[in-house]
Amino acid sequence: MYTSSDIKSNGYNYTAYYCEENIWRLCEKLIQSGGNLKAIFISNDRKAVPLWNQRLSDPLRNEGAVLWEYHVIALDGDSRIIYDFDSSIGFKVNFDKYVEMTFHPEWELDPIFQQKFRVIPAEVYLKTFASDRSHMINENGVWRRPPPPQSLISTPESKNNIQQFISMDSEVGWGKVMTLHEFISSV
Q1: Which of 85, 92, 106, 150 has the fewest Cβ atoms within 10 angstroms?
Q2: Residue 182 belongs to domain spanning
Q3: Closest Cα partner for 72 from 38, 34, 46, 101?
């Protein structure tokens, strides 16, 4: 299994529990190479999506799944590579292997846990995403998890629109919302 120091040694910044910012900064670096890069928000209406083979997975609980409110990964559609800072499979993984080991499409999940995917072109993500990190502060004003050292991500139009990215309502936000099978077919 690789560690966060492996990611840093490859020139990428990583802060646990801030996948949206990790992927935003990754897209900022990778977009210079061109290609068909996308940011993918994974969630559902219940904000409870199981992902397997995550670094926080406990193989003795929930069949090794982590139940995230949301998770964010990147996809290079040309090379069919998934980037996931939190995957125990690896940081850069072949699309088919990642899907098989992370989502188990052959399993029939209870509908309340079925993953949905908001697929956003990286250029759009970089221009529109904003987070003031307030979703990571509890009711007592204390950080749930330590924030990244980098400055906040904002746009001229917004200081905080992360909920529009997390939402799986196709009438809200940017990109296209898909089911797991639609996502697999689109790549």
Answers
A1: 106
A2: 4-186
A3: 38
Helix (H) or strand (E) holding 66: strand 65-68
For position 93, which CATH number holds? 3.10.620.10
Which of 19, 27, 76, 86 is catalytic? The answer is 19
Q: Is the whole model's pTM more than 0.90, yes or no?
A: yes
Distance between CA 155 and CA 166 in Å, rounded? 17
Helix, strand, coil percentages for the chain (3-state, nearest 5):
30, 25, 45
Number of domains the chain contains: 1
For the stretch 54-77, pLDDT in tens is: 998 776 566 679 999 999 999 999
Decide if 27 is catalytic.
Answer: no
In the set 6, 27, 78, 84, the catalytic residue is 84
User: In the structure, what pLDDT confidence band is assigned to residue 35 with cuts at 50, 70 and 90?
Assistant: confident
Of 27, 71, 76, 86, which one is the catalytic site residue? 71
DSSP string, 140-161: TS-BSSPPPSSPPB--SS-S--
